[in-house]
Fold this sequence. Notes:
By secondary structure, the chain is an alpha/beta fold. It has helices at about 5-15, 30-45, 60-65, 75-80, 100-110, 120-130, 155-160, 190-195, 215-220, 230-250, 275-315; strands spanning about 20-25, 50-55, 130-135, 145, 170-175, 175-180, 200-205, 260. Strands 1, 2, 3, 4, 5, 6, 7 and 8 form an 8-stranded mixed β-sheet that branches. Helix 2 packs parallel to helix 3, helix 2 (about 30-45) runs antiparallel to helix 4 and helix 2 (about 30-45) crosses helix 11. The chain is globular, with a radius of gyration of 19 Å.
Amino acid sequence: MSKEKHSQSDKENFSSAMPGVAIVAEGGGQRGIYTAGVLDSFLDHQFNPFLMGLGVSAGAQNLLTYFMGERGYAKRAISELTAAPGFFVPYRWLGARGVIDLDQYFDATVLDPEYQLPYQRISKVQRNRQLTFVATNRETLQPVYLEPDKNTVLKYLKASSAVPFLYRSPITINGEQLVDGGVSDPLPILKALDAGAKHIVVIRTVNKDTVQSSWRQRVDALPIRRALPAIMLDMLEIHEAAYSRAIDVMRSPPDGVQIYTIAPEHALCSHAFGSSSDAIIDDYEQGRSAGLEAITRLKASLSAKQGNKAKKEELA
């Protein structure tokens, strides 16, 4: 087979959605720059075999731009928009505006010509794939799974990203007050399994050996974490239980399920918020390298999956 034909075959095999193949992206604020690097490597190599995508907070934003083919957008949004004056201001802890200004951030993605994102294309994406954002019902602390279209995508993204006590208020959708999906389902692997996924790629924003989740690290960074209100303590309990369940499944997947984890080899240099530009660049490059390395292994695994399916069909 010629090199040209081989490349065309790769494109056909790994740029179209494959049944049972899912990708899960963890949140992490600015640490999502690592995920942006991974996904940009995927886009560079026209690698998107995922029928399903489930993202939490920054992970939801990353998966949206990936599924829309907007290479480099997430990198710019994280390195520039979340570093813009007024986005993250710790002394606004008690103010009405909140510590992080998601309104400023998302307004830029609609109104600023430099950062406009063609949100309307999400409806086309959803015809061939299933992209889901995770949020949390603030009253029940149960996960809420949102499937965006061109009319709802912006509000759903904001709901998934609304960090309690850092953003000024919950987002109301269908009568429910919603906050950051990391509270109730930080790694929505079980949701992917429920939807029929058999091959799941999980992109983390914490070192694979780290016992604390990214959301827990964000909470620990709160200015008055020693005087947290009761609801925040409840959120932590729910979050850590969900996080533990997901880690258990990753370590011991059900029969017939493969879970491939892409995670930093060492702790990321960036923080959830307030990171230096050098830290963000370093973490992006680490993600790019990890994504490039993962492609080869994932293609081999998916090729084996296709081969096994073909054999079963022949036997039938």
